[in-house]
Every structure is written in C-alpha cells, then in structure tokens.
Amino acid sequence: MKAKHLITLILILTLVSCSPNIWHVNNTSSVSIALNSSTQPYADKVYEADLQPFKQQIDKEMNVVIGKASVNMSAGKPESLLSNFNSDVYRQSASEYLKYQADIAIVNLGGLRTQITQGDITIRKVFELMPFENELVIVWLKGDKLNDLLQGFAAVGGQGVSGVRFEIKNGKAENITVGGIPLDTQKTYVIATNDYLAAGNDKMPQLAQSEKSEFTGIKVRDMLLSYIRAETAKGNVIQSKLDGRIK
C-alpha cells in the first residue's frame, strides 16, 4: 500500500511540475520608425537586390496612367473636392449595382489617405488613396437613424456625403434634404458606403442599425479604378466641385 501511495504522490508532483506558466501582459509600448532616406543606410543590400526584379515589375504596373485630374483634390471639412468625388462615385456605383438610384453615399474623411493632384492619375495613386481592402456595401436606413447620423457629422464639422444636403449651425445639422426633398424620419433610405462604416465604425453606429444591408463584393479600390478608366475612355477628365452640399 505504501508503494502505491508513493507512486501516486510522484505522479501528482510530476503533473504539477509540468503545468505551463500563465503569463500576463502588464504593459505595452510601441515606437514609430519612418521608412525614408534616414533609414536607407540600414537596409539589407542583398535582400534589396533580390527584391529588385519584383519591384521593377510592380512599378511598371503601378505607374500606368489611367486618367487625368482637372484640379487638385484633397479631403477637408465641411465638404471638399476629394470627399465629394469619392462619395459621388460610391453613389453612382451602388446605383449601377442595384439597377436603381441609391439615395445617399457616405465616406469617412479618415479613409481618404492621400490627395489627387492635378494631372496624371496612376494606378499607384488610387492604391495610395485606398490602401485597404474595403468593399462597397449598401444599407437601408430609417430616416430617424439617418438624422442622428447627420447630427453626428455636424458635430465634427462634416464628412463625405453625396445625395444629401444640410447646414451646420451651432454644431447641429439643419435644413436636411435628400434628393432635394426634406428628410422624412419615417422613410427608409438607400445608402452606399463601405464595410468598415457599415459595421458602425468611425463613430457611425447608426449604419450598423440598418433595416438590412447588402455586400456587393466590389472592392472600393476597384470601383474607383473602373470609374476613372471609364471616364477616360469617354474622353473625360476627372473633376470635382464644391456645391454647397454641406454649409
């Protein structure tokens, strides 16, 4: 009996000693390192040489000119040339997908990661503008939720919109119209946006409270590339204008 007890004790001690340690993260820190000329001396020259053929091929594809911009377009508030251009393309693309007119388009200024300068537009520029794999999403949103959403836009000074117009007074959205008609809080509106915003991100929770949503499978980047190429094929330059959609 004693031998059995001794064996049992040894097994217990063995199992306890083999138990994995449980680690807890107490704190974290990070540092931003800019990849520019200052870091070039530290680059691995052999690795750079190995990558050079791939870089040349990518550069060849990315530097292809697909259109021309008539003006410099950058993002800003309350409205801007770049946000107006992007939101208009969103709404047109959603309308083509649905085979009927989408009421509104919404883009977030933070998602526009560069400006488009006057002159040639390359594939690289569109990738810089939209470096994410976001998808065009269409949501059906009740008017009361839309009003709440636009009040949030007014509170921060504006966002990218198409199909809707309003004035900002004392941080509030007033005189809201959709397609030239006053906002109806009981009506359901068709809104083109992207999957990031449709999930309620960037302080737009109302978009996640939609009656329904539809994922189109169309990447926003591809949508922009297709639009620019199509306009260029028609002989048109890419342009935008400030039209007072947000005052």
Structural notes for this entry:
With 247 residues, the protein is α+β, with helices and mostly antiparallel strands. It has one domain: Alpha-Beta Complex (5'-nucleotidase,  domain 2), CATH 3.90.780.10. It has 7 helices and 10 strands. The protein has helices at residues 2-17, 45-62, 81-98, 123-129, 143-155, 195-198, 220-233, and strands at 65-69, 104-107, 119-122, 135-142, 160-162, 164-169, 172-178, 181-182, 188-194, 212-219. It has a 5-stranded mixed β-sheet. Strands 6-7-8 form a 3-stranded antiparallel β-sheet, with helices on one face. Helix 3 packs across helix 7 (220-233). The chain is extended, with a radius of gyration of 26 Å. The N and C termini lie far apart (90 Å).
The computed structural class is: alpha+beta
**Multimer state:** single chain
CATH class: Alpha Beta
Number of beta strands: 10
CATH third-level topology: 5'-nucleotidase,  domain 2
Helix content: 25-40%
Question: What's the CATH architecture?
Answer: Alpha-Beta Complex
Question: Given the structure, what is the number of helices?
Answer: 7
Low-pLDDT segments: none
What's the CATH H-level homologous superfamily? Answer: 5'-Nucleotidase, C-terminal domain
Q: Tell me the domain tally.
A: 1
